[in-house]
Amino acid sequence: xxxxxxxxTNSALNQFxxxxxxxxxxxxxxxxxxNLERIGEFFAFEISKTLEYKPLEVxxxxxxxxxxxxxxxxxxxxxxxxxxxxxxxxxxxxxxAQNAFxxxxxxxxxxxxxxxxxxxxxxxxxxxxxLILADTMLATGASLVLAYERLCKNGTPKHTHIVSTIASVDxxxxxxxxxxxxxxxxxxxxxxxxxxNKSYIVPGLGDAGDLAYGSKL
Length: 217
What we know:
The chain is an alpha/beta fold. The protein has six helices and twelve strands. Strand 9, helix 5 and strand 10 form a beta-alpha-beta unit. The N and C termini lie far apart (36 Å).
């Protein structure tokens, strides 16, 4: 698995990360969602550089222009609910993509220990397609691994791009250990060192789903 941490190169992405982390700006849920959508667009632009392109002729009112276009056989998948704004940003760029949605949650037991369970999955066939799997936070990595395995029951992707805004070091290592396919790229906007015993990333940003859509039961 190739890991690309975009924070290693300064860009406009820095400002979006600053704003989704800032506890004052976070009070505006629409701003929070908008910034995640922008981050999704940024990821999509970077991913677009890696796709296969083919030559294309397009007719203008004045003649024929020679250009090239990317392979449009793309499936964008996201883990509900925090992944939705990121998904929307990716889809805004790859607007012809097919879409998949995964419902995953933490099922808590004693001593705050939990297992990740997949409750819902809606996906097209992904055989020989480019799969983009998005989740806003990569904490333990367990939900992304389970989502990837569930999606691969619908076929083997040509290449998989896993996209996460903020990751923990532990989560990155977990993915590298459990997803060993060479045709997988992990894209990150920031990596934080600490993961608490409740599996929250520090400094992180808090609960992305709650910040985007309000608190849940």
